[in-house]
Amino acid sequence: SFINGELSINKHLRAPAQFSNLKDWITASSAQSDFSFDLTHSNPKLLLAKSTASLNNTGINSLQIKGSGNSHYQRQLFKLNLDPTSSIAINGLQLPTLQADKLSLSLSSALSTTFVIDDSPLIEALKIADFSAIFVSDKIHTDFGSISHLPLELALTAVDLANTQLSINYHLAELQLSPDKNNSALPFNRIKSELKGSVKIGKNQIQASINPKSEFEIIDLATDALSTDHLKITNNQAIYAAFNLTTKKSVITDHALTIASTTWQSTFGKFTHSDIDLKIADLDIENQRINVQFNPFSASLQAKKLPVKSIEITASGNAQANNGELSLTLNKGLLLQLKKLNTAGIRASTLKLRTTTDSQLKASLISFASNPLRSITLSPLSAVITGSSIRYATQKINYQSLSVKVHSSSLSPLRIRADSNIKQVSLSHHPALKKLNISASHKIDNKRHRLNVKLTSQHLPIAITAQVDSRNQYRNITGNWKLSPINLAEHGLTIAKTLQLALPEALNISTGLYQQQGKFSLKNNRLKGSATHQLSDLALDIKTLAIAGINSVSESSYSSEGSSQLSHSGNITISTINHAIPMSDFSATFKLRNLLKDSATLSINNTKAIILEANLSVDNFKIPLKHPRGASVLHFSNLPLNNLLALEQQPSLTGTGTLAGKLPFNFIDKQLWIKNGEIHSTDNGYIRYHANDQVRAFANTNAGLDIALNVLEDFHYKVLSINANYTPNGDLILHNKLSGKNPNWQNGQPIEFAINIEENVLQLLKALQFSDQLAEQIQKKVEKSQK
């Protein structure tokens, strides 16, 4: 009642006419038949009831067998042949994880079987010849999606039921898996493959192989980070697998795969890679072990949302997995190239990174899902970076190479310890900053990047150490530096030449030490900085000018906020200045403001010195540097009169007593004026002047001059006052008023008189310099004659 269809048999039977016993009669008989059938079992659940009693949601709607063939029996040998196109079909298959509208297996060649009727067991007596078949299906649904395929071609050989042996060669031109639209667990739209190989079944083992050039394609692959329209994988050599039915262990042989060149879309841009050749070795499914070696390949990223336009990489290495532990090794020689870098104001056309050691990444796959970064550890790494010039604002920075050595690192929490070394750094805007070598040690974590830096120069005898602390993703950077002491006697002129400072050719530096330290901050692209300068015991000379004991402490400060500001202030002391008029104990404070603007000024304050043993001071004054001009007052006290008279270099003119006064002055560029300077005596003294014969002869014709000369031979003054004026051409005009007496003239009668003196100070200074030079030349000649 459950089987519908048609069975047709056309048979022909021959048997002996004599019957002695059944066995001999059957042996002597023969039969042959032709048959065809088309049968459908409409309730195959009864057939499956016993084997599927424990399974739910299991069943078959109908089972259909269809075909034709023939049989032949003679002399205990029974032959059965099924014609090609004979088939068996299952309709409405229902399993817990799979449903199919139809499954069909049809012969593509004749199926021949033979059976010897004797005392042998049935399974040993049955022989099946090689045959081929085609498997097709319609609308297969699984928990993962729908499966469709082109006809599966099967070739069965070496069928041995007695020994449980079977060999199947298969060819599946196309197999596709399409996930259901509601299934979001699978990150692809379709899987497509072409498979060709064989399956061999033995008593204790199943062996399978996939022939070379089989293809596996994933269509519309998409994850949170990456997506591509098409991913193709091809095996380059046969893949063999074996499963032992006794031990339940499997073995897969080493093989090679190629991932075809693919273009990916990501949140960071378009990513493209070349063919990636993989060698799969030590594959052990039971122990979750695999070793994958990848040959050199190249990849590029056309970036977006990144501070670079493109990234290119060339790499090779291997990956290993073992019991949930993943290890990725990148061989040395990895090349990473960044193009059009632009971050935090730093720009570069090209940067190339090449590793000089192997690098390794390890991760625990067990903890990767819960905390990916914490599960990753990185091995030490060394690399060299080269590339185009780096630009920051208007500054251009050239360099030869940057070497980086990472000693230790972790990604969660982020901790990196590394060293770097930059060779041959040159800054375009600073002539002194050429061919610098910069080495640094780095400490990096989630919040900060701290580094200690050492800078040396091939052109300058300098060394700088610095500490830098970067926070808030490099938007807040602070640091400090210290310059090693510079011996100016040894290196001062070399440094000045490198800095292109215009110094006199005759300048000689005999002693001196320069030191500097400073600090800076860069916040939101706003730079602030300050530096402290210390000059110690500088001594120099230029021809007849000798300056010794120069000491100075000063500070520079810079700010880029608003309109950039640069200022410099400090103090200076000088022990001695030996020139036409010697000076000692000079001291002053100074302030330079707005040095980057046309309104730059120099303020000089608290100026003091000793000249001719007099105490000298100058009122505070300010000078605009673009067009220098200014005005102030020079004050002096305790000036010995005799020291002033000695400038005239006349032994017949002497005096005692001290002077004080003030000299108001103003200047424009290099021109100086003194107007209404006041000089007066602070105590009593004398002036003695013995005129020579020429002056006496002139006095004989001038009664007033004769009286003055007589009085000045020993004039004891009580009052001495001078009004002084000076002009830029060097003329000094002195209006002198004297009050006192000469004890040897007119019985010491008191007298008051005025004397006007005009002197060209520039000529006087030249004369004083000449006398010094003359004395020096005479001394040298004397020394030379004594040798």
What would your notes on this structure say?
The protein has 787 residues and is mainly beta. Strand 49 and strand 50 (671-681) form a beta hairpin. The longest helix is centred in the C-terminal third of the chain and has 26 residues, at 761-786.
Search tags:
54 strands, about 775 residues, mainly beta, rod-shaped
Instruction: Estimate what percentage of residues fall within beta strands.
Output: over 45%
The whole-angstrom Rg is 55 Å
The percent of residues in helical segments reads under 10%
Secondary structure category: mainly beta
- List segments where confidence is low: pLDDT < 50 over at least 5 consecutive residues: 51-55, 767-787
Q: Average pLDDT, to the nearest integer?
A: 88
Overall geometry comes to: rod-shaped
Number of helices: 9
Oligomer: single chain
In short:
By secondary structure, this protein is mainly beta.
Q: What topology does this entry show?
A:
Blueprint: E1 3-14, H1 22-28, E2 30-41, H2 45-48, E3 59-74, E4 77-82, E5 87-94, E6 98-107, E7 111-116, H3 122-125, E8 126-128, E9 131-142, E10 146-149, E11 152-160, E12 165-178, E13 190-201, E14 205-210, E15 215-222, E16 226-235, E17 239-244, E18 250-252, E19 255-259, E20 262-266, E21 269-273, E22 276-284, E23 289-303, E24 310-322, E25 325-330, E26 335-343, E27 346-355, E28 359-364, H4 365-368, E29 376-378, E30 381-387, E31 390-392, E32 395-398, E33 401-411, E34 414-427, E35 436-445, E36 448-457, E37 463-471, E38 476-487, H5 488-498, E39 507-523, E40 526-542, E41 545-559, E42 565-578, E43 583-593, E44 601-611, E45 614-618, E46 621-624, E47 629-640, H6 641-645, E48 653-655, E49 658-668, E50 671-681, E51 685-689, H7 693-699, H8 703-712, E52 715-726, E53 731-741, E54 751-760, H9 761-786
Antiparallel strand pairs: 1-2, 2-3, 3-4, 3-5, 4-7, 5-6, 6-9, 7-8, 9-10, 9-11, 10-12, 11-12, 12-13, 13-14, 13-15, 14-17, 15-16, 16-19, 16-20, 17-18, 19-22, 20-21, 21-23, 22-23, 23-24, 24-25, 24-26, 25-28, 26-27, 27-30, 27-31, 28-29, 29-33, 30-33, 31-32, 32-34, 33-34, 34-35, 35-36, 36-37, ...
